[in-house]
């Protein structure tokens, strides 16, 4: 969008912009605007907006010297350009400017203001002293396309019941696969929202997306699982994460949200003589919540099991800790097949270590069985065949 030099500018990062896009696309309803000071106080007091749950005030408070100067001098009804990466993405008409306490703000989101927490520290740095409310206009066509994608998938199979799963797949492992399969048993259509954070390291979004697409295409019923990217900004962080997940899933047209019992923020607490979880705070958001058990590999059962159904103790269980599996991949090691499907491991290692082998073809023909024909192989093929050798049993 061409910049208008007549208007002053507010500079936003991609994370703040994505949150505004969610609102404009109707995906954070009951929130449909930036909250003013009165709205903010109401949400802090009741946890509700327009009679429905929203866990914290939805405000825009960008940091930076230029933003502080603009907000501290902005006048009611003034139009400010919204700038992301030096490009105008829309504008806002000033309704109200009010001061906020950044430490209180991070406490509302994360449940703590401890700056040793990486998420808290990152969000705290992004917060300014002033918040702005007002009518704004921005581009959000990609989110509208995602809504259309889900609606078309429903119509294609005549789905009456749609279930959402929020997933990082960092990396995609066997427990993720089991969760998707078991969810399919209870619904017509599964929408996997693949989280796209702003601090990606080794496994970038495109690699995680490719692994999920491979699994969905090759190992699941056609047309019953779709993949939708979801930019995971700071509003999805902290102990309120599951409430935001439920709100977004509902507004995308899903009737149920499946979460794991170890999902962030779902722990029990005691209130008014009753045991509750944060899900008990979900008011006016008409979506079912299905809580899945934790999956482990049991070396006595010799298969993937639920901790609710396995009679053996935890010392017989191999847990699916994503960070530990990712550590193996970082070191260039093939995770055991009980942890990850070999094709998925191969795909990821080929991305993490491109051109790893100096003479791949010689290595391939020296140690792996071949058909006798001249064949071309890439590194992904090599990892898959190598895993097959690991899984032979006659000499082990």
Textual characterization of the structure:
By secondary structure, the protein is of the alpha/beta class. It has three domains: 8-138, Sulfate adenylyltransferase, CATH 3.10.400; 141-292, HUPs (Rossmann fold); 296-390, no CATH class. It has 13 helices and 19 strands. It has helices spanning 14-24, 37-46, 65-73, 102-110, 118-126, 141-157, 174-184, 205-219, 241-251, 322-330, 342-352, 360-367, 379-390; strands at 8-12, 48-49, 52-53, 60-62, 79-84, 87-93, 96-99, 127-133, 136-138, 162-167, 189-196, 225-231, 256-260, 269-271, 274-276, 288-292, 295-298, 303-306, 317-319. The strands form six sheets. The protein has a five-stranded parallel β-sheet with strand order 12-11-10-13-16, sandwiched between helices. The protein has a four-stranded mixed β-sheet with strand order 1-5-6-9. A three-stranded antiparallel β-sheet has the order 4-8-7. A hairpin with a 2-residue loop joins strand 14 (269-271) and strand 15. Helix 11 (342-352) crosses helix 13 (379-390). The longest helix is centred in the middle third of the chain and has 17 residues, at 141-157. 35% of the residues are buried.
Brief description of this entry?
This protein is an alpha/beta fold and 396 residues long. The chain has helices at residues 14-24, 37-46, 65-73, 102-110, 118-126, 141-157, 174-184, 205-219, 241-251, 322-330, 342-352, 360-367, 379-390; strands spanning 8-12, 48-49, 52-53, 60-62, 79-84, 87-93, 96-99, 127-133, 136-138, 162-167, 189-196, 225-231, 256-260, 269-271, 274-276, 288-292, 295-298, 303-306, 317-319. The protein folds into 3 domains: 8-138, Sulfate adenylyltransferase, CATH 3.10.400; 141-292, HUPs (Rossmann fold); 296-390, no CATH class.
């Amino acid at each position: 969008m061409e910049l208008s030099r007549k208007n002053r500018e507010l500079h936003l990062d991609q994370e703040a912009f994505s949150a505004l896009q969610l609102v404009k696309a109707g995906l954070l309803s009951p929130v449909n605007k930036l909250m003013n000071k009165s709205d903010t106080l109401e949400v802090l007091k009741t946890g509700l907006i327009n009679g429905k749950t929203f866990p914290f005030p939805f405000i825009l408070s960008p940091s930076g010297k230029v933003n502080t100067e603009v907000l501290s001098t902005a006048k009611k009804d003034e139009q400010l350009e919204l700038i992301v990466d030096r490009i105008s993405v829309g504008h806002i008409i000033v309704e109200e400017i009010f001061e906020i306490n950044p430490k209180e703000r991070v406490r509302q989101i994360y449940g703590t203001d401890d700056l040793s927490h990486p998420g808290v520290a990152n969000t705290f740095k992004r917060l300014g002293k002033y918040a702005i409310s007002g009518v704004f206009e921005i581009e959000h066509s990609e989110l509208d396309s995602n809504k259309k994608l889900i609606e078309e998938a429903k119509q294609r199979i005549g789905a009456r019941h749609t279930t959402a799963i929020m997933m990082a797949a960092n990396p995609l492992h066997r427990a993720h696969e089991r969760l998707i399969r078991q969810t399919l048993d209870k619904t017509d259509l599964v929408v996997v929202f693949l989280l796209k954070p702003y601090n990606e390291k080794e496994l970038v979004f495109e690699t995680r997306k490719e692994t999920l697409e491979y699994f969905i295409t090759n190992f699941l019923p056609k047309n019953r699982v779709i993949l939708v990217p979801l930019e995971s900004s700071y509003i999805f962080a902290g102990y309120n994460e599951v409430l935001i997940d439920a709100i977004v899933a509902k507004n995308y047209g899903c009737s149920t949200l499946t979460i794991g019992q170890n999902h962030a923020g779902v722990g029990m607490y005691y209130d008014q003589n009753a045991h509750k979880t944060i899900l008990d705070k979900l008011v006016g958001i008409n979506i079912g919540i299905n809580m899945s058990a934790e999956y482990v590999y049991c070396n006595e059962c010799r298969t993937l099991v639920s901790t609710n159904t396995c009679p053996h103790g935890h010392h017989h269980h191999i847990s699916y800790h994503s960070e530990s599996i990712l550590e193996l991949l970082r070191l260039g090691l093939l995770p055991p097949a009980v942890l990850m499907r070999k094709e998925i491991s191969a795909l990821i290692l080929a991305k993490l270590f491109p051109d790893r082998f100096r003479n791949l073809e010689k290595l391939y023909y020296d140690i792996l069985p071949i058909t006798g024909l001249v064949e071309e192989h890439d590194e992904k093929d090599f990892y898959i065949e190598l895993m097959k050798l690991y899984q032979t049993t006659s000499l082990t």
